[in-house]
Amino acid sequence: RGIRGPVQIEFVESVFISDVFVKTTVAGGTRLEAEVTITNTTDTAAPIVLTGEVDGVKMSERADIPAAAARIVRIGGAFPTARLWTPDTPNLYNLDLRLVRGEDGAAVDAYRQRFGFRQFSIRGHRFYLNGIPFMARSGWPLVGKGHEQAVEYLRQFKKRGFNAMRIFVGQGAVAEIVDAADEVGVLSMVGGCTEN
Q1: How far, in Å, CA of 183 to CA of 116, rounded?
Q2: pTM of the model
Q3: Phi and psi at residue 94, in whole multiples of 5°?
Q4: Over the stretch 45-73, which tens digit does the pLDDT of each residue have?
Q5: How far is Cα 125 from Cα 122, in angstroms, rounded to an integer?
Q6: 170-184: b or e for each residue (b if 16 or more CB lie within 10 Å)?
Q7: Of the four, 35, 124, 130, 182, which is 20 to 30 A from 136 by CA?
Q8: What does the CA dihedral 192, 134, 20, 78 come to, rounded to 10 degrees?
Q9: Are the beta carbons of 187 and 167 closer than 8 angstroms?
Q10: What's the number of CA atoms in the CB half-sphere (13 Å) around residue 77?
């Protein structure tokens, strides 16, 4: 038992970005929507401006974050020229976020989230990736420690004909494994596991 992944300690301002969830859609036009959780630890409401940039495209949203609370702020837009993520073309982008105090314009936080434009769906008994039928050939990789080791292992995993993997939360550094899978072009399905 114990700690199974990387640990980091962050020092943050009293108003900060505490989580980012990027959602992309492909059907009906390529779009990005990020749900950005902003936490305010002060005893007064905090007006903020959240800006984002992806591949030169800028977006902005104003919001008031209630005192001693967190709020989800949505930011996004259309990306008609985005290159889609697939196992054969694992195109990745960075969403660069910047949080600014509304009253004085001071930058208080920044956050980078890597992602790929992709949409997974199920119709009937078929899986679809970006609107195209997708046959998952999956396995359970035994990924080692460290990002570079995970990338190398997943390249070999893919050469053996796999294009998807299933990993369990208790397996170790899940975020590191998923990041490596995104780079290499392996679809990852993350689930929990039960210990007796």
Answers
A1: 10
A2: 0.88
A3: -115, 130
A4: 999 999 999 999 999 999 999 999 999 99
A5: 7
A6: ebbbbebbbbbbbbb
A7: 35
A8: -160
A9: no
A10: 15
When pLDDT is averaged across residues 108-126 and rounded to a whole number, the result is: 96
Could you identify the residue written with the tokens 């990745």? 92
Q: Which of 59, 189, 80 is nearest to 134 (CA)?
A: 189
The token pair at 15 is: 């108003």
Average pLDDT of the chain to the nearest whole number: 90
Instruction: State both tokens at 106.
Output: 């001071």
Q: Which amino acid is at 138?
A: S
What gap in Å lies between CA 196 and CA 194, rounded to an integer? 7
Residue-wise DSSP of the chain:
----S--------SEEEEEEEEEEE-TTS-EEEEEEEEEE-SSS-EEEEEEEEETTEEEEEEEEEPTTEEEEEEEEEE-TTPPBB-SSSB--EEEEEEEEETTT--EEEEEEEEE-B--EEEETTEEEETTEEE---EE-----SSHHHHHHHHHHHHHTT--EEEEEGGGS-HHHHHHHHHHHT-EEEEE-----
Which pair of tokens denotes residue 41?
Answer: 């630890």
On the question of pLDDT at 144 being above 70, the answer is no
